[in-house]
Amino acid sequence: MALKFRKALVTGGAGFIGSHLVEALVGHGCDVTVLDNLASGNLANLARVQDKITFVKGDIKDDRTLSRVAKGCEVVFHLAAVVSVTQTVKDPVLSALVNEMGTLRVLDAARKHGIRRVVLSSSSAVYGDAPQLPKSESMTPAPMSPYAVQKLTNEYYAELYHRLYGLETVCLRYFNVYGPHQDPSSPYSGVISIFMLRAINDQAPLIYGDGGQTRDFVFVKDVVQANLLAATHEAASGRVFNVGTSNSVSINGLWELIARLAGCRLPAKHEAPRPGDILHSLASIQRAKELLGFQPAITFEEGLRQTFAWYRQGA
Ligand code: UD2
Description:
By secondary structure, the chain is of the alpha/beta class.
C-alpha cells in the first residue's frame, strides 16, 4: 500500500496497538512522532524503532505539548486513552478528562495546525449488548460503560469536526484485538493474553460462565492495516468503520486452541459469569471492505501462533 503522507503523529504510540502502528509507519518510510505519557504504554514496545522516531513523553491533556508535536504533521493517529473499561467505571470523571477532553484537544490541535486527517480509535463497546449479530455501523449504539460513552462521544465530535471545519476524520471501532505487546498483567487484560500466560506457566485458566460466549478476535497487524487504509482512502473521511474479522470463536474453543499450542493438558476452571459480560460479539466488516479495501490477512491460527511465540520468548 502506498501511503499518501509522510509525517505522522501517533498518540498512545508506546501502547499495545500504537507501537505496532508506529513500526509499520516507520517501515513505510514515514517521519513519526509518538506522544505517550507511559501511563499504560511501555517504551520497550518501541525498542525496534526507537532511534528512527521522535518520542515525546507527554499528555494529550496538555495543550502546549500537543501543539508542539502536531505542528507540521499531515496525519494524526489518535490511540491514547484510558483503555480499561473497569477503570472508567471506577473513575468516570477522570477517565472522561483523558478519553473525551483529551480527544477533543487532539481534534482541535489538528484543526488549528492544518492537519489533513485524524484517525481515531473507537471500540465495539459502543454497541453494548444489543442482540443483533453481526454488529453493523448503521445500528443504534447502546453504550453500557463510561468507556463506551466516551468513545461514542469522540465519534460524534469527529463527525462534527469533519462537517464544521472540514477536518478529515475517520473512526475505527475495534473488536477484540490481540497480539504481541498486549499486557496480560491485570484480570481485565484481553483474554488471549491471560490464557497464553496461563498456558505457558502450566496453570488452568478461569473461564467466566460456561465458556459458550463468543468474540470476534482481530490480530493487531490487521488493525494496523485498517489504520493505514483509513488514513489513505478518500472515501473514508467522516465515517465510522468496524474493524474485526467477521469470524467468532467461543472462549472454550479459544482455550482448546491455546492449550494445544502450548502442549498444556489442563482443563479450564469455570466461575460465575463476569457481571456485565456480553454473550456474543461479531463484526460486520462489509463497509470497511467496500470503502477501504480492508481484508484481514492473518488467520486466527496464525495470529495465535505469532502471539504465543512472543509470550513464550518472555513477554
Ligand atoms: C472487550 C474489550 C473492552 C470493550 C468490550 C466491549 C478487550 C481486551 N476488551 O471486552 O475494551 O471494548 O469488549 O464489549 O478487547 N474471560 C474469561 N476468563 C478470563 C478473561 C476473560 O473467561 O480470564 C472471558 C470474559 O468473560 C469474556 C471474554 O473472555 O466473555 C472476553 O473477555 P475480554 O476481557 O478479553 O474482552 P471483552 O469482550 O470482555
